[in-house]
Design goal:
The protein contains nine helices and 13 strands. By secondary structure, the protein is an alpha/beta fold.
């Protein structure tokens, strides 16, 4: 996925869990010492942070700020028309940093930030920047490329698939293109099916979409489905094919069908940016984080590693090294 900040009043809310409501946490103050105004960070996510994927990954980053910077943190599920309202609310409460976890938060941030120059607004992906607006650009494409290579090498049917939640989201489309490229790099004649369930939360729709591509021969499936990913994993298990985890390490999913995960390690990125905001040195920009910075990884499921041929494992490690060193530039859309 750097500016002077507005000092806010100390809030005494306890962290009440990941239920999609507005949750806040007050950092601990040393006993017997006067409390200073806290560094306050809010996170807006498109879905529940209990999804073990996209939203949970961002929440882990938020928790790292609480632990390492003793920040007061808050989280709220926010989408559509609510985004600008929630951004304004946090800025009015004196939050120093408001993070929107998705491409869809960038445009609202550009609008709201004009009225709150002492609050920094950052989105995960997006091209808009201003003095107090920036974006993370997680190069998840690098891990999706490796997933495509594994699928292309291991497929028995010559057919693999991608299951998305909602279509036409640039950051998601870019990862699917990287998956395509990885698969075609090792098997040019491979057939790749892409479908959308139309919803990031409906597991039944995601399962139905996955069953559809499996019926067309797909034996390796990657998703960008957020909460609905469980439907992908369940369908893969029932039909005895493999799935890939995405955004977070989903290898331990109970379905047992996840052979590897394309992951974002958000904590270092969150900390790097937050420290600059806290120090007052942040300047609006788009900051890229990839495998070279330890922010992206492709993790083979240890429980299924014996199912992956040795030559495929070596190919994955060699390609990962090439990406980290800059010798291989994985395809990425600009947005």
């Amino acid at each position: 996925m750097k500016w002077t900040f507005l000092l806010g009043a100390v809030f005494g809310f306890a962290l009440v869990g990941c239920n999609g409501g507005d949750t806040a946490s007050k950092s601990d103050q040393p006993a017997g010492k006067a409390s200073a105004a806290p560094f306050k960070v809010a996170l807006l996510t498109p879905g529940e942070v209990s999804d073990s994927g996209w939203n949970a990954m961002a929440y882990s980053g938020l928790e790292a700020l609480k632990a390492d910077l003793h920040a007061d943190v808050a989280n709220k599920v926010s989408s559509g028309d609510k985004i600008k309202e929630d951004m304004r609310s946090y800025a009015q409460q004196g939050y120093n940093l408001v993070f929107g976890h998705g491409f869809e938060y960038n445009a609202p941030a550009m609008e709201v930030a004009k009225d709150f120059p002492k609050t920094v607004f950052v989105s995960s992906s997006g091209g808009g920047t201003a003095a107090n607006v920036g974006a993370f650009r997680f190069y998840l494409e690098e891990a999706f490329y490796l997933a495509g290579m594994m699928a292309g090498k291991m497929t028995k049917t010559g057919v693999i698939a991608e299951v998305g939640g909602e279509p036409n989201i640039p950051s998601i489309e870019s990862t699917f293109k990287a998956f395509d490229a990885g698969a075609k790099a090792v098997r040019p004649d491979i057939k790749i099916i892409k479908v959308y369930s139309g919803n990031f939360d409906d597991q039944a729709k995601a399962k139905q979409a996955t069953e559809t591509v499996i019926a067309q021969g797909a034996d390796f499936i990657i998703h960008q489905a957020n909460n609905a990913a469980q439907g992908v994993f369940d369908a893969a298990k029932e039909k005895h094919v493999y799935a890939f985890g995405a955004n977070a390490d989903q290898n331990s999913n109970a379905a047992g069908s996840v052979i590897a995960s394309a992951t974002i390690v958000a904590d270092p990125a969150f900390l790097e940016l937050a420290k600059e905001v806290q120090a007052g040195t942040y300047k609006g920009s788009i900051t890229a984080f990839g495998m070279d910075k330890g922010a992206i990884d492709f993790v083979v499921n240890p429980a299924l590693k014996d199912k992956v041929p040795a030559d495929v494992l070596k190919l994955i490690e060699d390609t990962k090294a090439a990406i980290k060193s800059g010798k291989l530039d994985v395809p990425k859309d600009k947005f």
